[in-house]
Design goal:
Blueprint (H helix, E strand, L loop, with lengths): L23 H17 L6 E3 L3 H16 L7 E3 L8 H8 L10 H6 L5 H17 L10 H18 L7
Parallel strand pairs: 1-2
Length: 167
């Protein structure tokens, strides 16, 4: 029986001009991941990543650690089906309707790095609305569409995998 390992990317650069970059901690997390997988002697038949930079950089860094340890590593494949949902689009689409209940929300979201706890509270509310589906807009990918996107990517992997592949 084969195996699929799901690994989240390292810490991104919250509050930076470009969120889609690993923070120094995120880069170190990717190195530690690669070293840990090397210590386990784990090898993969295929390795896939979403096409976001932080996802690819995590995978490439971990694979480099494994390669340096003498393990054979496959080339990294990318598939946008495994990209994270577009949090910025969700916020932009759903935040305006919340402003009557949360009048400070816009200021908090604009200065998320200085208001981390309040940002997290508001983000959880916004994502809850998105998950519930009652606030869907035509321009925004719905939660159900996002789940279908990921499922389609997983189905493609399973359809092309042998019974013993480690992916």
């Amino acid at each position: 029986m084969g195996s699929i390992y799901l690994i989240r990317h390292g810490q991104a650069s919250f509050g930076a001009d470009d969120y889609d970059v690993l923070s120094p901690i995120g880069y170190r997390q990717a190195e530690v991941l690669g070293a840990h997988l090397s210590q386990l002697g784990l090898t993969f038949d295929r390795c896939l990543s979403g096409n976001l930079f932080r996802q690819r950089h995590t995978a490439e860094t971990a694979l480099a650690q494994m390669d340096a340890a003498g393990l054979i590593t496959p080339a990294l494949e990318t598939d946008a089906a495994f990209n994270e949902f577009d949090a910025e689009a969700v916020i932009r689409a759903l935040l305006p309707a919340m402003l009557t209940e949360e009048p400070e929300a816009l200021e908090v979201m604009r200065n998320a790095g200085q208001n981390r706890a309040e940002f997290q509270r508001l983000f959880a509310l916004i994502v809850g609305r998105w998950l519930g589906g009652e606030h869907d807009t035509p321009a925004l990918q719905s939660w159900l569409a996002f789940v279908e996107q990921v499922k389609a990517g997983l189905d493609r992997i399973l359809d092309s995998a042998s019974h013993h592949d480690r992916i």
